Every structure is written in structure tokens, then in C-alpha cells.
């Protein structure tokens, strides 16, 4: 820089020297670990190396670091939620054979997979004879619900009735912490294979009544709606009360088709011949 007298003055540095501006990598990693950012701590050295090679600015570097942390946390949340839900593993919409079961509309399942019905606390009944894929679809939608951030509890009917019988004398207001009451989505599988006792029908009504407009129920059943009074201990009054709540703001899937299990048996027998 030239002064008025013509002498030269040394230029001031525009930034701190590199050594002073660069924090110790080990210190940064330790601080990230203390903050619970375990992925960021693990990934930081590699991301810094890439940032130098690709001449990334600080915002891009930070975005990569935080995006990886968010993705890792989301994966961990989904794994934990699936484990706590009790959902059987391995059944998804991706491996459901829609070609074998043309009665199931893919577009309707895709709409349910958005979980909009759960946000509205609506219900879902999946009806049809044994072996047509009712349980597979219920589990698949349960997985989607977990991925969308909803809590899910999966029960086979006998498991649920056992749990409710143990709580029979407890008022519903004191059962708010139970999975079958508090989960955003409760899936009840295999309704209809056995007739309810009068006590079981009353407990089932209590569950449906408590969850009505508070949380969603997904029920799979081999019984048509018209046969529910007979299934529910032959009590038409309690059956009407249950169905009135279940069918209000409810999606119904009626599956009529061949049994997957019978198909597998036929393929097995054909393979031996």
C-alpha cells in the first residue's frame, strides 16, 4: 500500500494464518462425540479430505456431515421402532405378489402407504378367506407406518385377548400406557378363527371404543361383516356398537382370490411328480 508520502506500508493479512484458523481434528472429533453426533465424528476425517480435493466450501461440507448424521439416526429409529412394534420381518409391499392377487388394487395400497389415513386416525379392515395375503398387507402397511414416524403395535388376536384379560379390572383411563392403547396404529391379526366369549367381546368393545378417533386400528379377518355378530359371542348389540365405530371413517379391503399357501403346496407337489 502506498502512503501520501510515497512510502510503502505492508499489506495486512485478509485472514488468520492457516494454522491458527484450523482446529485440531482430534478435538473436533471429541466434541462431536460429546454432542452425541457419532456418525459425524466418524465421518469427519473422510469428509474433510474430500472437501480439500473437491474444493468444497464450508456450507457444503457441513451439509454433508449433517445429512449423514440425520440419515444414520433415522435408520436407527426405524430399526428400533420395528423391533418394539412386534411386526414379523420380511413382508413388504415390494415383495407382495400383486399379479397373483389381482383383486388387490395396487393404487389403493399405494395410497394407504402414504399413511394419510393414520394422520386422520382412520381404520382399516382387510377381509378375505385364509391365505390370500391379508397378514402380508397388514404387516407391510405397519412397516410403512414406522418409516413415516408412527408408533405401531402388532398383535395376533389370541395375544391381544390374553393381554386384555389380564387388564380386565383396570379402568381404561389407567391403561393409556399399554401398547394396545397408546400406539398410533394397532394391528390385530387373525380375527374370526375362534368365536369370542362374552367377556372377550366386551373387552374388544372397550378397546375399539377407547381408540375411536384417538388412534388407528387395522384388523385382518376371514369373516365378512355380516358374520361378525355370530363371531362376537352372538351378541348383536355389542357387534353393532363395535362395527359402528370401526366402520366410521374406515377403509375396507375385500380380497377374493387364490391362497398363496395352496399355490406353494401345488408347486411343491408338481415338483415331485
Describe the structure.
The chain has two domains: 18-83, no CATH class; 86-264, P-loop containing nucleotide triphosphate hydrolases (Rossmann fold, 3-Layer(aba) Sandwich). Helix content is 52%, strand content 10%. The protein contains 13 helices and five strands. A five-stranded parallel sheet has the order 2-3-4-1-5. Helix 10 links the parallel strand 3 (185-191) and strand 4. The longest helix is centred in the N-terminal third of the chain and has 28 residues, at 58-85. The radius of gyration is 29 Å and the shape is elongated.
Short characterization:
The protein is of the alpha/beta class. Helices cover 52% and strands 10% of the residues. It has two domains: 18-83, no CATH class; 86-264, 3-Layer(aba) Sandwich (Rossmann fold), CATH 3.40.50.300.
Question: Could you give the topology of this structure?
Answer:
Blueprint lengths: L17 H4 L3 H10 L3 H17 L3 H28 L20 H7 L3 H4 L3 E5 L6 H14 L4 E5 H10 L12 H4 L2 E7 L6 H14 L4 E6 L6 H4 L4 H12 L2 E5 L5 H13 L1
Parallel strand pairs: 1-4, 1-5, 2-3, 3-4
Index terms:
273 residues; alpha/beta; Rossmann fold; 2 domains; five-stranded parallel β-sheet; 13 helices; elongated
Amino acid at each position: 500500500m502506498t502512503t501520501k508520502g510515497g512510502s510503502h506500508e505492508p499489506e495486512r493479512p485478509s485472514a488468520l494464518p492457516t494454522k491458527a484458523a484450523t482446529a485440531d481434528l482430534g478435538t473436533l472429533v471429541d466434541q462431536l462425540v460429546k454432542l452425541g453426533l457419532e456418525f459425524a465424528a466418524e465421518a469427519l476425517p473422510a469428509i474433510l479430505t474430500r472437501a480439500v480435493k473437491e474444493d468444497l466450501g464450508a456450507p457444503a461440507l457441513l451439509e454433508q456431515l449433517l445429512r449423514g448424521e440425520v440419515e444414520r439416526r433415522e435408520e436407527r429409529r426405524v430399526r428400533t421402532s420395528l423391533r418394539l412394534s412386534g411386526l414379523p420381518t420380511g413382508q413388504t409391499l415390494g415383495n407382495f405378489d400383486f399379479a397373483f392377487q389381482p383383486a388387490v388394487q395396487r393404487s389403493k395400497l399405494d395410497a394407504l402407504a402414504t399413511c394419510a389415513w393414520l394422520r386422520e386416525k382412520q381404520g382399516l379392515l382387510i377381509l378375505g378367506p385364509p391365505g390370500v395375503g391379508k397378514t402380508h398387507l397388514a404387516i407391510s402397511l405397519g412397516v410403512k407406518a414406522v418409516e413415516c414416524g408412527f408408533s405401531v403395535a402388532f398383535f395376533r388376536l389370541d395375544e391381544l385377548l390374553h393381554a386384555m384379560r389380564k387388564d380386565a379390572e383396570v379402568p381404561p383411563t389407567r391403561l393409556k400406557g399399554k401398547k394396545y392403547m397408546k400406539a398410533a396404529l394397532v394391528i390385530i391379526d387373525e380375527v374370526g378363527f375362534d368365536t369370542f366369549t362374552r367377556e372377550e367381546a366386551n373387552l374388544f368393545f372397550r378397546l375399539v371404543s377407547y381408540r375411536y378417533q384417538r388412534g388407528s386400528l387395522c384388523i385382518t379377518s376371514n369373516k365378512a361383516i355380516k358374520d361378525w355378530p355370530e363371531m362376537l359371542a352372538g351378541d348383536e348389540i355389542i357387534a353393532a356398537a363395535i362395527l359402528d365405530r370401526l366402520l366410521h371413517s374406515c377403509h375396507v379391503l375385500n380380497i377374493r382370490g387364490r391362497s398363496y399357501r395352496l399355490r406353494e403346496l401345488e408347486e411343491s407337489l408338481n415338483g415331485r411328480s
